[in-house]
UniProtKB/TrEMBL annotation:
This is Uncharacterized protein. The chain crosses the membrane at residues 52-70. It comes from the Bacteria. Residues 1-35, 286-318 are annotated as: Disordered. Keywords: Membrane, Transmembrane, Transmembrane helix.
């Protein structure tokens, strides 16, 4: 994988200048932060006989204050005003850390990744589609929910679920933006609370023009971190982080060479909210309370950060 050309990407150049200016005037108040990754679809590995996941990293910080914000998600609609998340000084229950956030009623962990009823797709029968859904479900669970991966950093568990050639195209040995798109890595020194992450999202399938089965996924994952000092936490979004990934998984069968048979990550878009900017830039997940705020952050109705139906943001000022 070659990421040398990322240094010259115009979005990243702007971000570096922005960070330099921002760090010169860091604010003292603690604010929630978000970050976003956006990776365009890679050229078909079936044409090139391999896939390279090229990351265009776009990092962002977001003020998530407990005030009413104007929701301009739909420019053609009249603005609406909503309360963001919680009251001014909510109590944070570490046994139920998602209370007061839009993720409170989501399914717990693995239960949130529930494939739909399978139906025939192109030349694939319902049983074959169901088998494809299950392979992708298992990979999603391993990538985003398995504690051995999240905090134990045992990324071999992820690689074994990919096609043999796909494994050689992804370097998960050290933190990076590209690696984070493939599997979630909790930063060293931080611990998740002993509650399952909250998950919501959808999965669907279609047949690609070359005959492969493609499974489209769009899932949001909310993680709750154990704070260093619980007495200093006054808002659940200081310890809750949100990750969203829109990923296409391509599944090839015996029509392809043995090295190319299996599951490929062929397109990924990612978006993060309320996590620490610097850690996320390194390709690691850490709670927002752990880093000073980035001044000049834009505002956003924070309920949208939890909504898988909202288009993934592409701007940044982290």
């Amino acid at each position: 994988m070659n990421t040398d050309d990322l240094d010259d990407h115009p979005d990243l150049q702007n971000l570096r200048l922005s960070r330099k200016d921002q760090r010169a005037a860091q604010a003292e108040a603690r604010r929630r932060q978000r970050q976003a990754f956006d990776m365009p679809a890679a050229p078909s590995f079936l044409r090139r006989n391999r896939t390279v996941l090229v990351v265009v990293g776009v990092l962002a910080a977001l003020v998530a204050a407990s005030v009413a914000l104007v929701d301009r998600a739909r420019p053609d609609a009249a603005p609406t005003v909503r309360n963001t998340l919680v009251a001014e000084s909510p109590s944070v229950d570490l046994a139920h850390p998602f209370t007061g956030t839009p993720a409170a009623d989501w399914a717990d962990g693995v239960a949130g990744i529930a494939p739909p009823a399978a139906a025939p797709v192109g030349s694939y029968g319902a049983d074959q589609v169901a088998a494809g859904f299950e392979r992708v479900r298992q990979l999603l669970v391993t990538e985003r929910l398995d504690p051995a991966v999240l905090t134990g950093h045992d990324f071999g568990r992820v690689l074994t679920l990919l096609a043999p050639r796909a494994r050689s195209e992804v370097d998960l040995s050290t933190p990076s933006q590209n690696a984070y798109l493939t599997a979630t890595r909790v930063a060293d020194g931080f611990t998740l609370l002993p509650v399952p992450p909250k998950v919501t999202g959808t999965m669907s399938a279609e047949q690609a023009p070359d005959g492969a089965l493609v499974v489209h996924t769009n899932y949001v994952f909310a993680y709750a971190f154990a704070p260093e000092d619980p007495d200093e936490i006054t808002n659940p979004m200081e310890i809750v982080t949100v990750d969203r990934f829109e990923t296409d998984y391509t599944i090839t069968d015996e029509r392809w060479t043995p090295e190319d048979q299996g599951v490929w990550l062929t397109s990924i878009q990612g978006f993060g909210y309320a996590m620490a900017c610097d850690a996320y830039e390194r390709g690691e997940l850490a709670p927002g309370y752990s880093e000073p705020p980035k001044p000049g952050a834009d505002t956003m109705d924070s309920t949208r950060a939890f909504d898988p139906d909202v288009p993934i943001p592409t701007t940044s000022n982290c």
